[in-house]
Amino acid sequence: MSHVSYRQESHSGETDYVVVGSGAGGAVAAVELARGGAHVTLVEAGAWRDPEHYPYSVYGALHHLFDDWGSLVARGRAMWPIVQGRCVGGTTVINSAICVRTPEDIFAQWQREHGVSGLRDAVLGHQEELERELCATPVPPQSAGRANQLALVGANQLGYESHVITRYVKGCAGTGQCLQGCRGRKKQSLNITFVRELDERGGDILSCAPVDRILLEGRRAVGVSGRFRDPSSRRRGGKFLIRARRGVLVAASVTRSPLLLARSGVALPALGKFFRAHPGTGVFGVYDEVVDMNVGATQGWASTAFRSEPGLKLETLSLPPEMVASRLSGGGTELVSKLREYRHLAMWVAAVRAESVGEVRSGLLGQPVVRYALDRADMERLRHGLVLVARTHFAAGAKRILPGVYGLPYSLGPDEVKLLEQGPLDPRAYVAVISHLFGGCVMGSDPARSVVDDHGRVHGHTGLVVCDASVIPTNLGVNPQHTIMGLARTFARRLLGA
Amino acid sequence: MTAILKHALCALYPRTDFFPGLADMDLDRFLHRFRRDGSAMLLLGMYAGLVLFVLTPVLTVYVPLPSFLLPRSLLDRHASRAATFPLYPLRSLILVLKLVAGLCWGAHPRVREQLGLPPLPADPLEWRST
Fold it and tell me: A294: which of A38, A176, A454, B52 fits an S-S bond (Cβ 3.0–4.6 Å)?
């Protein structure tokens, strides 16, 4: 037995380690444990799709690859969607595979504010290995696409630091399909790399298998149980139970790991607390030339020049027509007429290194409920970010920008950026997306304010480790996949050495 | 219910000189799929948006009629104003309607052709079952 998918019959097994979740945290930890000689069973709630089975349409991607169609919304003043993957490989299948090492100041902050020490050398060392293993390379010029090239021009004109993004991509063909899964197998998402390696090393993989509970004997984690679920019809299948001789690693995502621990009987005051994120929104630039933002790397340019002050990341993001259609304001003939400009649009995004803190709870039906609202300071950062993006568009030659902010004109010219500077601070005026999630099972030395220690071990429990973004106690200000993978490998190595 | 839903979606994406409208597409097939596949939250949002779309012409074009009784020019104005209405719940639920309708409209071969994009092949339905 190597891979077990949806079935009506029940299934049981025994292994050294069970890993729940196959995204950036789970897949890295699982393969590391397997490389260390352990038998590992990887359990994933979503289906296992190979690149040839990825959908072509946005409809198909939302249905088959995203968690609940990306329809989980943060409840605050505004309702902004939270975007995550739900398939073997997790969010690495649907993200842009952006590779950024954990900034030095983050380790110092973790030590200062959370008593977490001894991670820096291990994480950075593992990140160097991961960059080699997953072919981290800057976007090649032939795959950059015009939208990314224009952003570089604009930033250079304004004189701030920006760069071509480094991604885990091998020979990018510039198909602009990163967010729908790379059918060309260029993106090194973890379903085609580490999950496949785990399979080759004799590990077991359960897909379509959402875990209901972690089995605890006293304070010791001894396995997991759940029930298969058909990924298309959502019909429930047989039960599964996997017993773990040495431990259970949880990497089910920021919104689901805290709930799984709570359902299983873990009672810590910080569970579900300290949710953080990088909320972001974009501004379209309208150019005279044909940009065709859907051609080239989906995200090929970024600037971290504003990461520390005021706390922003700028990047490109190409959107398919289906998404642009709903992103432009208005409806009816007015909306459809605006869409004629699609080929001349470039979308660049400002993501806020937000200080606001929220929480993850269980809803009445056991679903994740995220309470999260940006405070005024974060909204000022977001607005400032949009102004920077707008200025960059104009520096790159845009004739107009489409800010997409309620209360502002649909389109602004170069002399009207001041309107954006004075734009509303009410989050309801913005159509934003919450990505890059952190917290819920945060690391720390104090069990009153954290859930896991600096080995990822859940306080007061044995054989129970969390190794996904939920352990990250602060906002990073950079794309988190590399940090999640570095931490997961660190925790797995420490587990093997324990 | 389907006829009213189609009315609202088609009002948001009408035919223009350049693009086909949702009315020119196989909306029945799309809605059948979406009702089967869509998440509970999205379906809830879509129907809530539909109710608001139908009932709010009195707020947007100041006519106390349901949207499906509006003449074409007023319906178009209602679609535009409902999507940019000052009340956040109305505006955001119309956004859900726009999102759902956009998934059908933006993927249509004739729309993609007009945007210089190749048609999308049918989505594979397979996954690893063993």
Answer: A176
Using the Cβ of B82 and the Cβ atoms of chain A, whether some distance falls under 8 Å is answered with: yes
**How many other CB atoms are found less than 10 A from the CB of residue A445?**
14
Q: How far is A389 from chain B (nearest CA, A)?
A: 23
For chain A, domains (ranges, CATH) are: 3-48+87-97+100-133+189-274+439-497 (3.50.50.60), 138-179+276-434 (3.30.560.10)
Radius of gyration in angstroms for the set of CA atoms belonging to chain A, rounded to a whole number: 22
pLDDT of A360 reads 98
| Type of residue found at A309 | E
State residue A325's pLDDT score.
82
Do the chains contact at A331 and B106, CB–CB below 8 Å?
A: no
Chain A partners within 8 Å of B111 (Cβ): 321
- Residues A143/A11, Cβ–Cβ less than 8 Å: no
Whether residue A55 contacts residue B103, with contact meaning beta carbons closer than 8 Å, is answered with: no
Reported ipTM: the value is: 0.96
Q: How many other β-carbons are positioned within 10 Å of the β-carbon of residue A464? A: 25
Residues of chain A with pLDDT > 90: what percent?
96
Active site positions of A, annotated: 436
Q: Which of residues 6-65 of B touch A (CB under 8 A)?
A: 11-14, 16, 18-19, 21, 33-34, 37-39, 41-42, 45
Q: What is the pLDDT of residues A292-344, one digit of tens each?
A: 999 999 999 999 999 999 999 999 999 999 999 888 999 999 999 999 999 99
pTM of the shown model: 0.96
Segments in A266-341 forming alpha helices (H): 321-327, 333-338
- Other C-beta atoms closer than 10 Å to the C-beta of B35 total 12
At A397, which amino acid appears?
G
Q: Which residue has the tokens 């922003």?
A: A312
Give A464's strand partners: A248
B80 phi, psi to nearest 5 deg = -70, -45
CA distance A224 to A218: 14
Cis upstream peptide for A279 (omega within 30°): no
Separation CA A25–CA A20 (nearest Å): 10
What is the predicted pLDDT for the residue at A232? 85
Task: Decide if A312 contacts A381 (C-beta within 8 A).
Answer: yes
Residue A107, CA distances (Å) to A26, A122, A353, A444, B9 in order: 22, 11, 16, 12, 50
The answer, yes or no, to whether residue A498 has pLDDT greater than 80, is no
**How far is residue A285 from each of residues A63, A348, A356, A403, A413, measured CA to CA in Å?**
30, 8, 29, 9, 10
Instruction: Kindly report, residue by residue over B71-116, the tens digit of the pLDDT.
Output: 999 999 999 999 999 999 999 999 999 999 999 999 999 999 999 9
